[in-house]
Protein backbone atom coordinates (compact mmCIF):
# COMPACT_ATOMS: atom_id res chain seq x y z
CA UNK A 1 0.00 0.00 0.00
CA UNK A 2 1.10 3.56 -0.73
CA UNK A 3 1.83 5.35 2.59
CA UNK A 4 0.68 8.67 1.12
CA UNK A 5 -2.68 7.18 0.18
CA UNK A 6 -2.99 5.65 3.64
CA UNK A 7 -2.44 9.05 5.24
CA UNK A 8 -4.90 10.78 2.90
CA UNK A 9 -7.54 8.13 3.56
CA UNK A 10 -7.01 8.15 7.32
CA UNK A 11 -9.50 9.40 9.89
CA UNK A 12 -9.35 13.14 10.70
CA UNK A 13 -7.95 12.42 14.17
CA UNK A 14 -5.19 10.22 12.75
CA UNK A 15 -4.40 12.92 10.20
CA UNK A 16 -4.14 15.44 13.03
CA UNK A 17 -1.78 13.16 14.94
CA UNK A 18 0.38 12.68 11.85
CA UNK A 19 0.48 16.44 11.24
CA UNK A 20 1.65 17.05 14.82
CA UNK A 21 4.36 14.42 14.43
CA UNK A 22 5.55 15.91 11.15
CA UNK A 23 5.78 19.36 12.77
CA UNK A 24 7.73 17.89 15.71
CA UNK A 25 10.08 16.09 13.33
CA UNK A 26 10.76 19.14 11.13
CA UNK A 27 11.34 21.36 14.17
CA UNK A 28 13.67 18.78 15.73
CA UNK A 29 15.75 18.52 12.57
CA UNK A 30 15.98 22.32 12.36
CA UNK A 31 17.23 22.47 15.96
CA UNK A 32 19.73 19.65 15.40
CA UNK A 33 21.23 21.27 12.31
CA UNK A 34 21.40 24.67 14.01
CA UNK A 35 23.05 23.20 17.11
CA UNK A 36 25.55 21.13 15.11
CA UNK A 37 26.68 24.25 13.24
CA UNK A 38 26.76 26.29 16.46
CA UNK A 39 28.80 23.75 18.42
CA UNK A 40 31.26 23.34 15.56
CA UNK A 41 31.77 27.09 15.30
CA UNK A 42 32.19 27.53 19.06
CA UNK A 43 34.64 24.62 19.29
CA UNK A 44 36.74 26.09 16.48
CA UNK A 45 36.68 29.55 18.07
CA UNK A 46 37.71 28.15 21.45
CA UNK A 47 40.64 26.21 20.01
CA UNK A 48 41.94 29.30 18.19
CA UNK A 49 41.44 31.46 21.28
CA UNK A 50 43.35 29.08 23.55
CA UNK A 51 46.29 29.04 21.13
CA UNK A 52 46.23 32.84 20.99
CA UNK A 53 45.84 33.24 24.75
CA UNK A 54 48.71 30.93 25.66
CA UNK A 55 51.05 32.78 23.31
CA UNK A 56 50.30 36.22 24.74
CA UNK A 57 51.95 38.14 27.56
CA UNK A 58 50.25 41.48 26.88
CA UNK A 59 46.89 41.77 28.61
CA UNK A 60 45.77 44.63 26.36
CA UNK A 61 46.10 42.44 23.28
CA UNK A 62 44.02 39.75 24.95
CA UNK A 63 41.35 42.26 25.97
CA UNK A 64 41.06 43.71 22.47
CA UNK A 65 40.81 40.28 20.87
CA UNK A 66 38.31 39.08 23.49
CA UNK A 67 36.06 42.09 22.98
CA UNK A 68 35.86 41.35 19.25
CA UNK A 69 35.24 37.63 19.76
CA UNK A 70 31.88 36.18 18.77
CA UNK A 71 30.45 32.85 19.91
CA UNK A 72 33.39 32.35 22.24
CA UNK A 73 32.63 31.45 25.88
CA UNK A 74 36.33 31.56 26.77
CA UNK A 75 36.54 35.22 25.78
CA UNK A 76 33.51 35.90 28.00
CA UNK A 77 35.21 34.14 30.90
CA UNK A 78 38.33 36.24 30.50
CA UNK A 79 36.54 39.57 30.14
CA UNK A 80 34.27 39.03 33.13
CA UNK A 81 37.22 37.98 35.30
CA UNK A 82 39.13 41.05 34.15
CA UNK A 83 36.20 43.31 35.06
CA UNK A 84 36.15 41.86 38.57
CA UNK A 85 39.82 42.70 39.03
CA UNK A 86 39.34 46.23 37.70
CA UNK A 87 36.86 46.99 40.48
CA UNK A 88 39.85 47.15 42.85
CA UNK A 89 38.73 44.55 45.36
CA UNK A 90 41.00 43.65 48.23
CA UNK A 91 43.83 41.38 47.19
CA UNK A 92 42.95 38.85 49.89
CA UNK A 93 39.57 38.15 48.30
CA UNK A 94 40.54 38.69 44.66
CA UNK A 95 40.91 35.05 43.65
CA UNK A 96 37.66 34.10 45.35
CA UNK A 97 35.79 36.86 43.53
CA UNK A 98 37.37 35.93 40.21
CA UNK A 99 36.40 32.28 40.69
CA UNK A 100 32.83 33.30 41.52
CA UNK A 101 32.68 35.40 38.35
CA UNK A 102 34.03 32.51 36.28
CA UNK A 103 31.42 30.12 37.68
CA UNK A 104 28.61 32.58 37.01
CA UNK A 105 29.82 33.21 33.46
CA UNK A 106 30.14 29.50 32.74
CA UNK A 107 26.59 28.93 34.00
CA UNK A 108 25.31 31.63 31.66
CA UNK A 109 27.19 30.19 28.68
CA UNK A 110 25.94 26.66 29.39
CA UNK A 111 22.36 27.96 29.57
CA UNK A 112 22.83 29.50 26.12
CA UNK A 113 24.19 26.23 24.72
CA UNK A 114 21.33 24.25 26.24
CA UNK A 115 18.60 26.45 24.78
CA UNK A 116 16.09 24.52 22.65
CA UNK A 117 17.54 21.06 23.29
CA UNK A 118 14.75 20.35 25.78
CA UNK A 119 12.47 20.27 22.72
CA UNK A 120 14.49 17.34 21.38
CA UNK A 121 14.07 15.45 24.65
CA UNK A 122 10.34 16.18 24.66
CA UNK A 123 9.95 15.02 21.07
CA UNK A 124 11.96 11.88 21.75
CA UNK A 125 9.80 10.91 24.70
CA UNK A 126 6.39 12.12 23.53
CA UNK A 127 6.34 11.34 19.79
CA UNK A 128 6.01 7.53 20.18
CA UNK A 129 3.05 7.98 22.52
CA UNK A 130 1.41 10.53 20.23
CA UNK A 131 1.84 8.05 17.40
CA UNK A 132 0.47 5.27 19.59
CA UNK A 133 -2.62 7.34 20.31
CA UNK A 134 -3.19 7.72 16.57
CA UNK A 135 -2.76 3.96 16.15
CA UNK A 136 -5.20 3.11 18.93
CA UNK A 137 -7.74 5.54 17.52
CA UNK A 138 -7.32 4.16 14.01
CA UNK A 139 -7.63 0.53 15.12
CA UNK A 140 -10.72 1.39 17.14
CA UNK A 141 -12.30 2.90 14.03
CA UNK A 142 -11.26 -0.15 12.00
CA UNK A 143 -13.08 -2.46 14.39
CA UNK A 144 -16.12 -0.19 14.41
CA UNK A 145 -16.11 -0.38 10.62
CA UNK A 146 -15.99 -4.17 10.82
CA UNK A 147 -18.99 -4.16 13.12
CA UNK A 148 -20.96 -1.87 10.83
CA UNK A 149 -20.19 -3.86 7.69
CA UNK A 150 -20.52 -7.21 9.36
CA UNK A 151 -17.43 -8.52 7.60
CA UNK A 152 -14.29 -9.93 9.16
CA UNK A 153 -12.13 -10.79 6.16
CA UNK A 154 -8.64 -9.34 5.77
CA UNK A 155 -9.59 -7.13 2.84
CA UNK A 156 -11.90 -5.15 5.13
CA UNK A 157 -9.63 -5.05 8.19
CA UNK A 158 -6.23 -4.44 6.58
CA UNK A 159 -6.68 -0.87 5.24
CA UNK A 160 -7.94 0.50 8.56
CA UNK A 161 -5.19 -1.17 10.58
CA UNK A 162 -2.52 -0.05 8.10
CA UNK A 163 -3.77 3.54 8.38
CA UNK A 164 -3.54 3.25 12.15
CA UNK A 165 -0.07 1.70 12.28
CA UNK A 166 1.44 4.39 10.07
CA UNK A 167 0.91 6.86 12.92
CA UNK A 168 3.16 4.77 15.17
CA UNK A 169 5.75 4.49 12.40
CA UNK A 170 5.83 8.27 11.92
CA UNK A 171 6.05 8.71 15.70
CA UNK A 172 9.18 6.56 15.77
CA UNK A 173 10.63 8.39 12.76
CA UNK A 174 10.19 11.65 14.68
CA UNK A 175 11.43 10.31 18.02
CA UNK A 176 14.57 8.36 17.11
CA UNK A 177 16.51 11.22 15.45
CA UNK A 178 15.40 13.57 18.24
CA UNK A 179 16.82 11.26 20.91
CA UNK A 180 20.07 10.87 18.98
CA UNK A 181 20.24 14.63 18.48
CA UNK A 182 19.60 15.29 22.16
CA UNK A 183 22.38 12.94 23.24
CA UNK A 184 24.71 14.52 20.69
CA UNK A 185 23.96 17.99 22.07
CA UNK A 186 24.46 16.86 25.66
CA UNK A 187 27.82 15.32 24.76
CA UNK A 188 29.00 18.46 22.95
CA UNK A 189 27.85 20.74 25.78
CA UNK A 190 29.64 18.54 28.30
CA UNK A 191 32.83 18.80 26.25
CA UNK A 192 32.57 22.57 25.96
CA UNK A 193 31.86 22.76 29.68
CA UNK A 194 35.06 20.86 30.41
CA UNK A 195 36.98 23.24 28.15
CA UNK A 196 35.52 26.19 30.06
CA UNK A 197 36.41 24.58 33.39
CA UNK A 198 40.02 24.08 32.32
CA UNK A 199 40.32 27.61 30.98
CA UNK A 200 38.72 29.06 34.12
CA UNK A 201 41.20 27.11 36.26
CA UNK A 202 44.07 28.45 34.16
CA UNK A 203 42.86 32.02 34.65
CA UNK A 204 42.31 31.60 38.37
CA UNK A 205 45.48 29.70 39.22
CA UNK A 206 48.02 30.49 36.51
CA UNK A 207 47.19 33.65 34.59
CA UNK A 208 45.83 35.89 37.33
CA UNK A 209 49.04 37.93 37.12
CA UNK A 210 47.83 39.18 33.72
CA UNK A 211 45.36 41.43 35.50
CA UNK A 212 47.81 43.04 37.85
Report on this structure.
The chain contains seven helices and no strands. The protein is rod-shaped, with a radius of gyration of 27 Å. The chain has one domain (3-211). By secondary structure, it is mostly helical. It has helices at 3-9, 12-54, 59-68, 73-86, 91-114, 117-149, 154-205.
Question: How would you describe this structure in keywords?
Answer:
single chain, 7 helices, about 210 residues, rod-shaped, mainly alpha
Order of helices and strands: HHHHHHH
**Unreliable spans:** none
Give the helix proportion (percent range): over 70%
Give the terminus-to-terminus CA distance. Answer: 75 Å
Number of structural units classed as domains: 1
* Total number of beta strands: 0
Largest sheet: none
How would you state the average pLDDT, rounded? Answer: 87
Q: Hey, roughly how much beta strand do the residues contain?
A: under 5%
Overall SS class: mainly alpha
Whole-angstrom Rg: 27 Å
Separate helix tally = 7
General form:
rod-shaped
Summarize the structure.
The protein has helices spanning 3-9, 12-54, 59-68, 73-86, 91-114, 117-149, 154-205.
